[in-house]
Amino acid sequence: MGKLRKGLGGAAAVLALAAGVAAYRTATFAPEAVASPDGVTLAAIPAFDEANAAKNLSAAVRFKTISHQGAAENDAAQWTALQAWLQSTYPLMHKAMARELVGGQTLLYRWEGSDPQAEPIILMAHQDVVPVTPGTEKDWTHAPFDGVIADGAVWGRGSVDDKGSLVCLFEAMEALARQGFTPKRTVYLVSGHDEEVGGKGAKATAELLKARGVKALFTIDEGSVIVADAPVVNKPAIMIGVAEKGYATLKVTANAPGGHSSMPPKETGVINLAKAVIAINDNQFPLRLDGPAVSMLEALAAEKGGSTKLAVANRWLFGPMVKGQVAGTPSGAASLHTTIAPTMLQGSPKENVLPQSANALINYRIAPWDRSADVMARAKQATQGMPVALDWVEPPREPTPVSSTNSEGWRFIAAAARVQAKDAVIAPYLVVAGTDSRNFSGVSRDVYRFMPMLFTMKETAMIHGTNEHMSIENLRRMVGFYAQLIATSAG
Hints:
Structural class: alpha/beta
Number of helices: 14
CATH architecture of the largest domain: 3-Layer(aba) Sandwich
Helix content: 25-40%
């Protein structure tokens, strides 16, 4: 009995110690190295005409700068017309800034700063849009390329992604030029023409700036927003993208003798291919509480408090539970690992012919802690001994570096964003898709991905989808944010 009491006493002491450690860590918990924008003195937002900005976005939507998967389908005249319209619509900005075309139809503007020693800033937004899925036009409240202004919004493909950003940047710079603003830092504006199909224009522009010796304080592009019902806190959160995942597409090929489908062998090319795809998909990358996703979680948990803060502050104890909660949605799980998504299959050209070659494409979005070599090694391990070949469709894009959440650029962006959402928590974010800004790590100290549009999680589904629209209120936020960011960071 004495031994039992002693054992229980020891267990109680351990539990008491663990409880004490957990309580201390919770009480002292704060997001690691996420700087507050407090102390940043913001420039005033210049006057601008909100209604006229909406009319201009409406006009921009009507240019069908659609990037099709096959470039031969693109109408190059639409880009030329859009660029001519920008020149005529924003004369003061064009007078203040030098303009050049790079890599075909990518726009590069330079507003010369008065201090040649000051690091410049780079702002980005692309000109092209994705197609509307054939047959879905009837599902739109307003025709996707009419640019209708109704119900307090501008409707149409690209009104958010990314002509919304493009027009708001031009509106902001026109307003600053009208006010007589003269920057101390040089201001660059880069507008890629083919972001939706790989961003070769932006890549060429980044290479050009690097050759010219440009090293910017920060670059800002699309990629994240103010989420009205952010996870964990269920309230507005300013989610500033600090990194984006890599991108790779693997081709799995199964060769076979082929023949007539009336006399199939035990294993055909299609069967071998199916087994390989299933094996690769079943060998998922492990979930990790690491990188920008953890930084975001810490910022949101610190704001939420209570049991959420307790769990995140003590991941040594509650890590599996936290991981499971975050991974409860596809978007949450995507932030914790490299994702594997089989997307395309190809086999026989005819229903009664066994294919001599069947192949599948598997798309990967690579987490910041992985590399394409890890992806290939894992796929080879999963298909070891199977009669298939593995090859990249194109050279993979590796994950971007993770930008600082404690830099001067971060503080400028966070301060200007908070003006547009005063009570929102500020959190870093991992962008699981891709942007043109991934090319600018070599010419910028930090690269951020953020637009101050306020959306619910549900509303973000309209981007690349049906009924894309920019509210007038969000348009006002965007113009004010860009103008204040430029005037504060470059003034």
